[in-house]
Design goal:
269 residues; alpha/beta; Rossmann fold; 34% helix; 18% strand; globular
Length: 269
């Protein structure tokens, strides 16, 4: 299994496809051993795709904490160097979008084009929902609150009518779960996430950027996407029909995101 030492820790990664180089930075609690995986979508076969388990998660090392958002960005930059990529297109989803902001600010030469999906700047631009607050809830209460946040249209009546979706969300959208080292890394990620703030540094992002989100997202509300797009020079904003997982809900989303990455649409709104 492919692993490299990057930024002083061991990271697990996967490469697939052929085409322009694309780094996919995944969200909270993501583990490449679990599906569904965004990177498996057919649209990404047109890229040489690089995915990885972030520090503390999946098959990557769990270093001692605390972790900072700068640590996650430096990990991503070091991973690019270790696999021989001078630069790449970058897609950051949710927590991965926070990491991608830091990456584009701290290591601008590595980022050619940037998509920030269902994410927030923190600080004055608005923070994503404090997911760490859900960890201490009883499992059933935590799951129901996660459902409410993922899509604000999913009320109690809808959830009762769609038990399969509830089960899938419970399997995929995990927070601070696991035993020993895996739980430790997941909680350290949530702590770092709670301190994320790029709101006064977004003007330092100079690459073409698309900010996108779901209109019914209770984790990263539309206002947070609007702030990002206003604050990043020349950024384009595009909202889709869905919640936090809009890219799985709106068939137009992934084609629009990948078309921007391939520079097939205007950089500006």
């Amino acid at each position: 299994m492919p692993r490299v030492t990057a930024n002083g820790i061991e990271l697990y990664y996967e490469r697939s496809g052929a085409g322009e180089r694309l780094l996919l930075i995944s969200g909270t609690g993501a583990d490449l051993r679990r599906g569904p995986r965004l990177g498996d979508a057919e649209v990404f076969a047109r890229f040489e795709l690089l995915q990885y388990d972030q520090r503390g998660l999946g098959q990557s090392e769990v270093p001692e904490g605390p972790y900072s958002m700068a640590d996650y960005a430096d990990d991503a930059a070091a991973l690019l160097g270790e696999v021989g990529w001078e630069d790449a297109l970058v897609l950051g989803v949710s927590f991965g979008g926070m990491v991608a902001q830091e990456l584009a600010i701290r290591h601008s030469a590595h980022v050619r084009r940037l998509v920030l999906a269902c994410t927030s700047s923190g600080g004055g631009g608005g923070a994503s929902y404090p997911l760490q607050d859900l960890v201490a809830l009883p499992p059933e209460d935590s799951l129901l609150r996660r459902m409410e946040l993922l899509d604000t249209r999913w009320d109690a009546e809808w959830r009762r009518a769609h038990p399969g979706v509830v089960k899938t969300i419970g399997e995929v959208f995990r927070l601070g779960e696991g035993d020993g080292e895996s739980a430790k890394g997941a909680l350290l990620q949530l702590e770092a996430r709670s301190r994320h703030d790029t709101s006064d540094r977004l003007g330092e992002i100079r690459c073409p950027t698309l900010v996108c989100g779901g209109r019914y997202d209770g984790i990263a509300p539309s206002a947070n996407s609007e702030f990002l797009a206003r604050s990043i020079p020349g950024a384009r904003l595009q909202m889709f029909d869905g919640g936090h997982a809009f890219f799985m809900q709106d068939p137009a989303a992934l084609p629009a995101m990948t078309a921007f990455l391939r520079n097939e649409v205007s950089d500006r709104a």
